[in-house]
Amino acid sequence: MAQENVRETTCGGMTEKEQERKETQETAEIIRESGQVFLEDVYLLSIIGEIEGHENLSNTAKTTKYEHLLPKLAEIEQDSRVKGILILINTIGGDVSCGLALAEMIASLSKPTVSLVIGDSHSIGVPLAVASDYSYIVPTGTMMIHPVRMSGTVIGATQTYEYFEMIQDRILGFISNHSAISYEKAKELMLNNKMLTKDLGTVLVGEEAVKAGIINEVGGIQEAVRKLHEKMA
Q1: Pairwise CA distance, residues 154 & 86, whole Å
Q2: What is the pLDDT of residues 13-39, one digit of tens each?
Q3: What is the per-residue burial (b if ≥16 Cβ within 10 Å, else e) of 175-186?
Q4: Catalytic residue among 46, 123, 135, 179
Q5: Over 60: is that where the pLDDT of 41 sits?
Q6: First CA to last CA across the chain, in angstroms?
Q7: 146 is catalytic
Q8: From 146, 176, 178, 179, active-site residue
Q9: Mind listing the pLDDT tens digit for each residue in 43-53?
């Protein structure tokens, strides 16, 4: 006589509990490897550490690999299950070209996006923070705007200076087009020579970033999630 309490199996031959256990393990693996996770109808995207671009960084460095995020963002755009994207940011910056490419990709998504600066959003992290539909920063979070820096051999010619200006113009244009700060004010903050020792630029903490017009509001994960659901409704 067959037992009455026989657990149903999935199409793969696993029991429901085994399938749930496998899915939990897979989710944990995804979070551990990339910091990304799908939460019901919201996709959580983490931009942490340094933005790794065309060159691999040290194995000891915490990085966000843009070649991983670009196809993921394309996948999110096509995934009907995803109704909104929450972006957590804590980055010191990194590859300018690749960071700006990620920012453009985020800005072009058709689904609601909300960003939350939970630590630092420095250098190319600024365009990434403002690329979303709405942005938050925690009270102790910082944003740093500074001129473009370049490592390696730099040719001391007028063309080099013009090239640097062109890159900075792209960054400043993106920031001013996706936030309430003007191009002129953003450039003033970038070229400020009164704050950083032996360097140019400006560091804004929490409310200062809001007052400057870069970030929409001071808040944390609760406020960011609430705003995202409002935009998803």
Answers
A1: 38
A2: 667 666 666 555 554 454 445 456 667
A3: bbebbebeeebb
A4: 123
A5: yes
A6: 52
A7: yes
A8: 146
A9: 998 988 878 76
Q: Is 123 a catalytic residue?
A: yes
Q: d(Cα 135, Cα 152) in Å, to the nearest integer?
A: 34
48 contacts: CB under 8 Å, gap ≥ 6: 35, 62, 64, 88, 89, 90, 91
Structure token pair of residue 124? 């190319």
**What's the whole-model pTM score?**
0.77
Q: What six digits make up the tokens of 100?
A: 């700006």
Mean pLDDT of 94-120: 92
Sign of the dihedral defined by the CA atoms of residues 184, 187, 189, 194, in that order: negative
Q: How far apart are CA 172 and CA 187, in angstroms?
A: 7
CA distances from 226 to 35, 81, 174, 221 (A): 21, 19, 26, 8
Strands 37-39 and 42-52: antiparallel
